[in-house]
Task: structure prediction
Amino acid sequence: MSVSVRPGAPPGSVRREERSRTALATVCISGTLEDKLAAAAAAGFDGVEIFDPDLVASAWSPEEVRTRCADAGLAIDLFQPFRDFDSTRPDVLAANRRRAERKFDVMERLGTDLVLVCSSVAPDALDDDGAIAEQLHALAARAAERGLRLCYEALAWGTFVNTYERSWEIVRQADHPALGVCLDSFHILSRGSDPAGIAHIPGEKIFFLQLADAPHLDMDVLQWSRHHRLFPGQGTFDLPTFLGHVLTAGYTGPLSLEVFNDVFRQSDPTRAALDAHRSLLALQEETAAVLSPAVRERARTVELPPAQELHGYAFVELAADPASAPAVADLLTALGFTRSCVHRSKPVELWQQGDARVVLGTSVDVDGAMIAALGLETADPDAAARRAGALLAPVLPREHGPAEVDLPVIAAPDGTQIFFCSSGGTADWLTDFVPVQRLGSDTDPAGSGLEGIDRVDHVALTQPFDHFDEAALFYRSVLGLRPQHSSEVAAPFGLVRNRTVTDPAGTVHLGLSVSVLRRGTGWQPRVTDPQHVAFATPDLLATVRAARAAGARMLPVPPNYYDDLDARQAPPPELLRALCELDVLYDRDAQGGEFLHAYTEVLGGRLFLELVQRIGGYAGYGEVNAPVRMAAHRRQRSR
Result:
């Protein structure tokens, strides 16, 4: 059922005149200034912040940058940064004024009227609000003579001025129409400042807004800022509330991103810019919920098609090459699945057990076996696709027969295809499949019919390193999946970061993982970019016994694990013996909930299956056992 991916992504369905303006600082993404401007325009941004070092390194003159931006439909909203202006030393202040005049020249050539002035981090910085205000007033007066403006920003690590409250007090004392404040969400929220006071700053004095998210980290704030900022929705900051205060104050300028991130600045700039724009669209939607109707109308926050309620996995599609497909089919049979149907026009089969459905296809374009697509149940597949398109997700073309259902399908960041499905009615995707007994030429047995599995519990996908945060934002914004659980696992071959997302009703659970550093030295046979599907059963021990008796190749667990399990959690002796006999892993949470799970061996190089049983409200994923599973898979690959 999976389809070929067409490069690129469609533009959002929301017209520019219907929404707030958006901007991207060139420091956010990789490449030369030329690359960055092209990426920002392709992603649909209205403007850019020109980062001074990007301009210095560019072969384009400021006049050519101005022309290129205009031709691409990009406004140059800000030139930045101008650092360390205020000073206790007259000679340094004089040099800074000269430097400012030269940068004013550059601004005029660029055609922008606004420059960012950061609070000083120099040892000669002033610690006198009145004196700083006086120096900034004089600089603003000179800027105004040239038709320019200044926005003053408190850096979180400024020598003395490091809060927005103090920067605003200085601007208020300076009292010049060409001087306002720049509010940066990172500088404010990283210090734990209360952003509620922003709503009391006159909107006309908020000259510029810079937005960034970040994970919660206990580290030096400068290093945190320079390496770990994220696009909105990828971190832990409460940006909707922050932005709500800014818009309530009356700010009407662009919503601009300033994100310093080591990964983003090495990634494909076109893709990163698209992700950045998606983050702003999603942030506006979330912010609108906290705004009064009057502020919402004035701010023109974007209105997106609503996220559709999900009702679980309609199917998981596995694709395998001709060498791996028979082993996948044999394993499904041993696990109790029945090969029930074949597609009317595509080379795929439908395997079923309870409410768990697996679509299995064979293709020479696949290397080994993999998860090719996920089918998600929703009452309105077309509405789900409209939201995806508005959030810049690639909506894929799909060929289908005249009597077949036209299923909307989009591409996730890792290439996995997401189908929006509806069971029942005229658009029932199951009607595209024909029971195997209707095909006189089909002689394959229908499967073992063993009872046990009743549904898909979760799906786990390893993400490319550069796109882990992008994937989290994609599933959150496009599908409405919220973070449920995050962890880091010390795996046998390096640290693995995990993040699980789920829908509000808890019917779809998706695990995303990434190796924090993956060098691939080749010294050991590893499982590259592993993927797995976990199936739920009400009686795991019975299901595993039946599967092993039917020939399922389950993953062996070393006896050392059960010795340690007995020491740590002391399960009842009879249960411990059964776990050890059947190679079943075990976990128990603080509330007494229990988790039993067992894995198959790897098929086709990266794919494996998991059987799980949840008892007493256990909501985790047994990640404490992940290193044991990884080591066991390594041993299997070594054989």
Remarks:
- The two ends are 34 Å apart (CA to CA).
- The chain has 18 helices and 24 strands.
